[in-house]
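Dear colleague,

Following up on Tuesday's group meeting, I ran the structure prediction for the two-component complex that the binding team flagged. I've pasted the input sequences exactly as they went in, so you can double-check that nothing got truncated or mislabelled along the way. The structure tokens for the whole assembly follow below. Feel free to forward this to whoever is handling the docking comparison.

Inputs:
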Amino acid sequence: MAVYRLEETQLDPFITAVANRYHVFAPVRTDVVRFQDVRDGRAIDLSENSYLPIKEFFFAKQDVLFVFDRANLAVPVEEVEPRVFLGVRRCDLNALSHQDLVFMQDPRDPYYARRREASVLIGYHCPEPPSPHCFCGSMNLKDCQDLMFVPRAGYFLVEEGSERGNRFIHEFPLYFRETEEALREEDRRVPGADGLTTTDIAPFYNDERWEEGVRNCLSCGACTVLCPTCYCYEIHDEVELEDTRRGSRNRCWSSCQLKEFSSVAGDVCLRESRSERFRHRIYHQLEYFRERYNVTLCTGCGRCIGFCPTRIDWVDIVNRMVASASS
Amino acid sequence: MQAHENAYIPRPVKVLNNVRETPENFTLTLSLRLAHEPGQFLQVSVLGVGEAPISIASWGGDTVTLHICEVGNVTRALGACRPGDTVFVRGPFGNGFPMYDTWGHNLVLAGGGSGVASLKGVIEYVHRHRDDYGDVTIFLGFRNAGEVIFPDRIEHWRIHFPVYVSLDTLSDGRRLDASEGFVTDLMRRTDIPAGESAALLCGPPVMMRLAAQVLEDKGLRDDHIYLSMERLMYCAIGKCCHCMIGDKYTCLDGPVFRWDALREHMND
């Protein structure tokens, strides 16, 4: 794949040019750093990873699956204008590629697919771990972006990652100069972010430390909301108060950390205790998803640890299980 | 409208009949011709209320029978449906009972409570394909006489198969010949045909776990025992993750699971 150079001084005019043709979403510091629609490069903040991942732009917090009026159904067709996400970290790019496995494969999810197909993904390589809780280096991440920006002193190295990325470069030839400078091995890995000892946790299913880990859990579900890979959802009907024969069927995010997630008829909750729910989340992330899709779901962004109100550090818990098993 | 490519969009179906079986249970007959396996399920919805997975309690013909217990908003709304009303369905979903893998085997069919509904489709299938199976023994358990569903069908099955019925507590007014106690105890007391036997179970988890153990004690192989599981379910297409049992999805890999694969993971 070809490599280009974009001068740092050109970033602002480049984004202005892109914004004339696309919606550009990039990390901006407001209350926290979050992806927002930008018109130029001035507000962009690449100093840390965004608080919220980009999943909500694809797998929306709430989607109307269809509306109904008595027995007539209609499916809303959202027109998604072409858009660019700029400054997406490797963890969040891989997370999106994992959600692609769920939503783009047969039977395809048309709501997700429409947004996904309208999007160009421009990655930003972390020169150092943006958070002490990052462990993407343990997660065997892949290149799955359209373009990757690698920061250098005074410029970005820009590597093509896909056909779409190649077309995008050629849409804006003014800003990119092809270069012989090659990416180095460390441009594909974040140094010092490999804190998880293993992703094979099958032997630890009955370890008592799952219990210890959730002693302070509030069952708030922040870990699953902030997770770039968590994709569980629930579906509910809503009716119009003016005429309850009209309404919509909606889906919204759901959290396996809440009891209602696995409750069935007769008030039976299958994962009654917090430790069972905690263990299920980590097993889904590290084991169960891989059984089906051949890739580990978690991408090591560390948000579920760093933003947990009681700082439940499951990486530390798993590492201790590994340590005592090998000693 | 893109119903053909959108797996979330249900199709309208007319209700032909709604028969009350017990105060909480009813049987809904839908005008629907469906290619399906016994043990598969439909996602059935009442628009504005919601959708719920319901086992298909029939096999073949121009209608589909659903036997439903009123336990939540959707099932209560379905219970209020009258002939001529429209409900919406998606599916069939799930793997169903292994009617091909058990070909030539003796069958033990054991159902508890509403789980008998799912076995009803199996029994109708086996009746139509009687020569494909050896001895067929049926065990049905209910809490009391008032909770027996399809008593007339059960009497009809008795013409063709040995059908053992247990009621947790015997009381007056029962319409069926039954013994008192748990169905799993009745199974333990009863001779089950020797040789290659397979068991298909549907009922509350505790009942199925005990039944599987009884059958193992009687010499059935654990990979010849099949359980139909229930989980909270929304999408039924392997995406929403609510129905996971370990790494398996009840909607895609189940609802019928082999006992040898499930025994360690029943509560995962």
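Chain B is about 20% helix and 30% strand.

Cheers,
M.
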